Amino acid sequence: MSTFQLIQTQARKLAAGQLLAATDCLSLGSRAAIDQALYRMVKSGQLVRVSRGLYALEHPAHAQALAAALADKKGGLSVKKTTSPRKMALAKTAHGRVLLDLWARGEKTLTRTEIKIATADWTPQDIDAYLSLLPAWLRVALLQCHAKAKSVQLGLAGAYSWSNPQPRDELLIAKVLDQHRFEDMVRVCAHFGVPKVRRVFRQRVYEPMPRASVSRMLGNIAKGLKLSQQEAYAQS
Questions:
Q1: How many angstroms separate the CA atoms of 99 and 3, rounded?
Q2: How buried is residue 77: exposed, middle or buried, by Cβ count under 10 Å (0-12/13-18/19+)?
Q3: Confidence band (pLDDT; 50, 70, 90) for 13?
Q4: How far apart are CA 96 and CA 45, in angstroms?
Q5: Is the pLDDT of residue 210 over 70?
Q6: How do residues 103-143 score in pLDDT, each as one tens digit?
Q7: Interhelix angle for 194-203 vs 208-235, to 10°?
Q8: b/e per residue, 98-115, with b = 16+ CB within 10 A?
Q9: Rg (CA), the chain
Q10: N or C: the chain end with fewer CB closer than 10 Å?
Q11: Is 50 helix (H, G, I), strand (E, B) or coil?
């Protein structure tokens, strides 16, 4: 049996309120395999993470119950712990328990890749339902992981931000200028303004012919956008 299956079998034997420690599973596989198995079980709703390295079949309803279980695991030491209302609310649903596990990993150790994998099939509505329960750092990271690529938001034809969905404006403009697709240059000029695009252009290094071509296109785009604005003003 795999480490995951062995831990799954052990977890099914837990009584209500009983805790399973990661250290209880050391004989079942490597620490990496154990951590991965426990993470998968939390994500799928089979376990709830109640404290660092401690898991249960269901989240304790009261802080006193958690304190008693933790004290038992730690050799009878007196433990005082309070569970925040936000964490208790998250613990009630499968998605919430996934977020609890991400939260517990901490801002310094959690990666964007882990967030993307854990929430890959979530809808915008799923995300919105939990934002108010999350700490600011996790809320921002979750939104950034699910944000549409900036190039998609602008309707650009080229794949300018496949490796970085949210590049700095100047970097995206530079990439569009380097490719100098006319329709994409029109879109970035309309969105960021011709002056800003020209500032980025002046900082780029091109061969004489490409530079002349891009300069000419920017001039035509500027004239076209100005004419469009004048026509819109006249019709208003």
A1: 24
A2: exposed
A3: confident
A4: 10
A5: yes
A6: 988 888 888 888 888 898 888 888 889 989 999 899 888 88
A7: 170
A8: bbbbbbbbeeeebeeebb
A9: 27
A10: C
A11: strand
Average pLDDT over residues 199-217: 93
**Both structure tokens of 210:** 């490409």
Alpha helices in 60-111 (DSSP H): 63-73, 85-90, 94-105
What is the rounded CA–CA span in Å between residue 30 and residue 4?
11
Whole-prediction pTM value? 0.42
| The residue type at 222 | A
Query: Could you identify the residue written with the tokens 């709830």?
Result: 48
Domains by residue range for the chain, with CATH: 1-80 (1.10.10), 84-147 (no CATH), 150-235 (no CATH)
On the 0-12 / 13-18 / 19+ scale of CB atoms within 10 A, 6 is middle
